[in-house]
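Hi F.,

I've been meaning to write this up properly since the lab meeting, where we talked about keeping a consistent format for the predictions we share between groups. The idea is simple: the sequence comes first, exactly as it goes in, then the structure tokens exactly as they come out, then a line or two of notes. No screenshots and no reformatting. I'm using this chain as the first example so we have something concrete to point to.
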Amino acid sequence: MTGHPTTAPVTDRTVHDAANAQALARLVEARPVLETVAPAGRVVPGMTARTILVSGPPMPWERYEGGQRRAVIGAALYEGLARNEAEAEALLADGTIAVRPSHDHATVGSLTGVCTASMPVAVVRDEASGRRAFCRMNEGPDRASLTFGVWDDGVGARLRHVCDVVSPALAEVLDHLGGIPLGPLIRRALAMGDDLHSRHRAAGAMFRTTVLNAVLDMSRSGVAEHHRALAAYLSSAEYLFLHFVMAASKAAADSASGITGSTLVTAMNLNEKEFGLRVSGLGDRWFTAPLPPVSTLRGRLYDGWTTDDLAYVGGESLITETVGLGGMAAAAAMPLQDHSAGTPQEMIRLTERMYRITLAEHPEYRIPSLAYRGVPCGIDVIRVAETGIVPAIHLGATLRDGGHAGAVLFLPPQAPFQEAARLLTAPSPATTTDTPARPGDPL
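Output, unedited:
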């Protein structure tokens, strides 16, 4: 009898479903708490004095050429790792200063994502899993910042103010409060028009109220000067709460990582050149593809700029979409309609499409305009590959020469989702279990 090779999927749909149920449970059961603010070198795993973390999948230093490259050089000068730009370039080229992807250090960073050892990071712990994740503190309201690919003396001064004054004051408040649970603020903010990526005014206002109430409680004999500086910072740092949500989303997504057979997306990001994603069942492997032309971005830009003025500088705020926030929850954030899908009806349709590529609805993060339906949560690479629908992402826009330009809707390339889906559903190597037929044997 002739032996016939047999093939079967590495993991059938039943196995996928069981793995996804486990991964999804970890994602939605996360209980993020903002514990403290501390220098990255003190709390971030694997951080060294000569490490600079950046957004995006790994990329050789020589490929960086725009705003992200400028930000890394600026970070090296800020940290005192080089005396001038030429020296910084040489040390980065020979690896004396190491450029590392943030995700490999349990960290996420907004846009360029640069973070050095002395820079303060928000520390968020998921009480359900015990995991901690980190995100560098927001630099403040100025459109020119390291985050947006700008380095100059003014940027350095603002970084030092956040490092030396604002962050220690906030750490003191968080210690007094025993941390601030972020889940309740996120839930209420969604009901107040935030998507928690491009818009977080409601969340920021509630956070500010919590902090200032604590300051008053701590200041019975008068408000200290560093607390006044903290209050001024909180009034102007519009994107501060985003950094807390990013760390919270990273902690939740990391808890859902590494589950064999799971097709759930656990990270999405970009550097200057590529979009990348990770999938729970495929571990730490990055699936990447070139970024679409900036001409494909649509949204609202400041000061009459057009997409011709834009450039990619990286970004990891996309981590919010992995838990169902940002563009996935567009229908919750009607004030963003000009920055996103264009009209209230299109915002609703955008979110409704996201339910087709996700595994569940979040049990606590809900959208009022959809009769309090849970946000679409748990992006499934197989569903993306089957439908051709990609996650909707709300993204900050950056000028080619650096600086904040507005907000846009970003649609990532399909190829990384398709490649990951193929690997997860690929047939196993052919196996033969019967004895091979001999010449003359009956078939």
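Notes:
Confidence is low (pLDDT under 50) at residues 1-11, 430-443.
The CA atoms of residues 227 and 353 lie 45 Å apart.

If this format works for you, I'll send the rest the same way.

G.
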